[in-house]
Amino acid sequence: MTLDYRFPAIEDLRKHARRRIPHYMWEYFDSATGDESAWHRSETALDAVTLMPAVLAGDAPAELETAFLGQTYSAPIGIGPVGMSGAVWPDAERLLARTGAAQRIPYAMSTVSVATPEEIGPHLGDMGWYQLYAPASGEMRRDIFARVRDAGFHTLVFTVDVPDLSWREREKRVGLKNPMPITPRILWQTALRPTYARGMLGRPVPRPRLFDKYIHHSATAAGDKHVGLTLRTAPDWDYFLRLRDEWDGPLVVKGVLEPASAARLKADGADAVWVSNHGGRQFSAAPAPIMSLPGIREIVGPDYPLIYDGAIRSGTDVLRAIAMGADFVFLGRAFHYGLGAAGADGAAHVLRLLTEVMKLDMSQLGITRPAQARTRLATTKPM
Ligand SMILES: Cc1cc2nc3c(=O)[nH]c(=O)nc-3n(C[C@H](O)[C@H](O)[C@H](O)COP(=O)(O)O)c2cc1C
Fold first, then answer.
1. What is the rounded average pLDDT for all residues in the chain?
2. Interatomic CA distance for residues 195 and 307, integer angstroms
3. How far apart are CA 217 and CA 268, in angstroms?
4. Known catalytic membership, residue 278
5. Per-residue pLDDT for 21 more than 50?
6. Which residue owns the Cα nearest ligand 1 atom 12?
7. In 3D, which of 210, 218, 207, 216 has the Cα closest to residue 136?
8. Where are the alpha helices (DSSP H) in the chain?
9. Cβ-count burial of 235 within 10 angstroms (0-12 exposed, 13-18 middle, 19+ buried)?
10. Per-residue pLDDT tens for 201-241?
11. Residue 222 has what pLDDT?
C-alpha cells in the first residue's frame, strides 16, 4: 500500500499536513496553551510507559474488536472532538464521520463544529458520539439534545475541563481572534495552500453553526467573542445531574484527571469517564493524563469504562494507555494530520497505522486482546 511507504508514521502525516494547512490555522490547531508544557508532559510520560515482551508465547492472532458502552467497534480507538474541525481542513466533519462509519470506530463531533449535527447525521452510520460544551440555557440544552438524537448520535460526551478560555500564545502571535478577521495576511496565507483554498471555495466562513438557531437568545453574541463561547457556561455538579436526567443514552464525562472526581461521577451516574488534559490546550500545569489513569482505575474498579486521550501517536501508545488502565482511546489532532496530508484516505490511514502496529506489538506481548496489555505493564517512569 503506497500510503504505508509515503507516511509510515503519524509524524510523517503531520509534517505533510503542515505544508497544506494555512499557517494561522496550523497555529490554532497544532498548538497547546501557554508554554505548551502540558502537551509535552503528556508525550514524555506516555513514552516512559514500557511493556514487557513475552517469549515463547506461540502463535496468538490479535483480535481488536471491542465492545464498549453497548456498541461493538472494530478497535478500541475513536476520533476525538476537535472544535472548528471544518476550518482545519475543508469539510472535515463530514469526512471524519464517514471514516468512522466505514471503519466502525466512533466519531465524536464537537459542539463548536463548522457543520451542524443535521448535516453530519446522514454520514454517521451507528458510530455517532456528540460532544457537548454546556449551554447556559436549559432550554437550549434540551433542544440540542433533541437535534443530535434526531440526527443519529447515540452517545453524549460532556466536556468538563473548559470552565473558561485559555491563553494560547501561538494563536495570539498569528493574530487569531474570534470571529476570525478576514485580513490580507489571512487571505495570503490561505492562497499559499491551494488544495485547502480550493476546498474552502463556496463554503460559508467557518463558524460554529450549531448556534445559528439560537443567536437571538444571546445579547452578547455580537462583538469579538466566539459565538459558541458566549452561549456556554462553566457547569457545576448540579448542572451535571440535570444533564444526566435529560440525556437517556450513554453519558461520558471528558476531561477528568483526579480520582475523587471520577469516583463521584461514577456514583452520580456517568457511564464512563474520559481521562484527558484536553491535549494540553487548557492548563499548562495539568498532569499528564497517562499518570492519572492508574489512580482513577483503582478508585472506579476494574470494570468501569475508562477512556484515555493525549499524545497518542502510534499503536504502541494505544497499548500503553490500555496497560495503564484505559479501555478505549481517542485521538484529536492525529486524524486531522491525516486529512491535511491525504484527505479522507489519510484519516483512514491513521487508523491503519495504529491497528497494524497494535497487532504486531500484541504478538510481542503474547496477547490476543488489547485489554490483556494490562498484564504486561513493565515500568511507568523514565529509566
Ligand atoms: C484544535 C483542537 C480543538 C479541540 N476542540 C475540542 C472540543 O471542541 N471539544 C473537546 O471536548 N475537546 C476538544 N479538543 C481536545 C481533543 O478532543 C482531545 O482531548 C485532544 O486533542 C487529545 O490530544 P491529542 O490531540 O494529542 O490526541 C480539541 C483539540 C484540538 C487539538
1. 94
2. 35
3. 31
4. yes
5. yes
6. 81
7. 218
8. 2-6, 10-18, 23-29, 37-47, 85-88, 92-103, 117-120, 138-151, 169-173, 184-191, 194-200, 227-230, 237-246, 259-267, 289-300, 315-323, 333-365
9. buried
10. 999 889 999 999 988 644 444 444 555 555 678 999 999 99
11. 44
| Predicted TM-score (pTM) of this structure | 0.96
Nearest alpha carbon, ligand 1 atom 15: 278
Nearest CA to ligand 1 atom 11: 159
- The rounded distance, in Å, linking the Cα atoms of 326 and 366 is 19
* The pLDDT value given to residue 216: 64
Cα 333 to ligand 1 centroid, rounded to whole Å = 7
Model pLDDT, residue 227: 57
pLDDT attached to residue 224: 45
Taken in order of first residue, the domains within the chain and their CATH numbers are: 2-375 (3.20.20.70)
Per annotation, catalytic residue among 226, 278, 336, 349 = 278
pLDDT for residue 226 = 53
Amino acid at 235: P
Read off the pLDDT band of 199 (50, 70, 90). very high
Top mutation candidate among 111, 158, 281, 351 for ligand 1, by most atoms within 8 Å of CB? 281
The ligand 1 atom nearest the CA atom of 88: 1
Ligand 1 nearest-atom number relative to CA 80: 17
